[in-house]
Design goal:
about 120 residues, mainly alpha, 7 helices, about 0% strand, Serine Threonine Protein Phosphatase 5, Tetratricopeptide repeat, flat
C-alpha cells in the first residue's frame, strides 16, 4: 500500500509528499521482504524528484534504483526505470548522462526493454 501511495504523490510532484511517501514505502519493506520492490520505490522517488526539479537528488535515487535492480537482477525494477531513463535523456548534466549510459548498458546486459 505504501508503494501505491508513493506513486500517487509522484504524479502531481508534491515534494513534501514524495519524500514522506518514499521514506514510508522504504521503511515498509521488511528485512525478509522481496527486495526487488526497493528498485521500484527508488525509481518512483527519483521520478518525483525530477518532476519537482531536484535533479541531483533524482540522480541519487535513480542510481540507488539501478544498483538495487542489478543486485537483485530485477527486470521489473529495470522496466520501472524506463520512465527515469526517458527523463535522463533530456538532461545534459554529466551525472545524468553517465547514469543514462549505465542504465542502457544494464538494460542490454539483462535483456530488458524500456517500459
Amino acid at each position: 500500500m505504501a508503494v501505491f501511495q508513493l506513486s500517487v504523490h509522484v504524479r502531481p510532484g508534491d515534494e513534501r509528499q514524495v519524500i514522506a511517501a518514499g521514506q514510508h514505502a522504504l521503511s515498509s519493506v521488511g528485512e525478509d521482504a522481496d527486495h526487488k520492490h526497493i528498485a521500484v520505490i527508488y525509481a518512483d522517488v527519483a521520478q518525483g524528484q525530477f518532476q519537482i526539479g531536484d535533479i541531483p537528488t533524482g540522480i541519487t535515487y535513480a542510481r540507488r534504483a539501478l544498483e538495487s535492480a542489478q543486485r537483485t537482477e530485477s527486470t521489473w525494477g529495470l522496466q520501472h526505470l524506463g520512465t527515469v531513463e526517458k527523463t535522463l535523456a533530456a538532461h545534459k548534466d554529466p551525472a545524468a548522462r553517465e547514469l543514462l549510459g549505465d542504465l542502457i548498458s544494464t538494460r542490454r546486459t539483462l535483456g530488458s526493454s524500456p517500459a
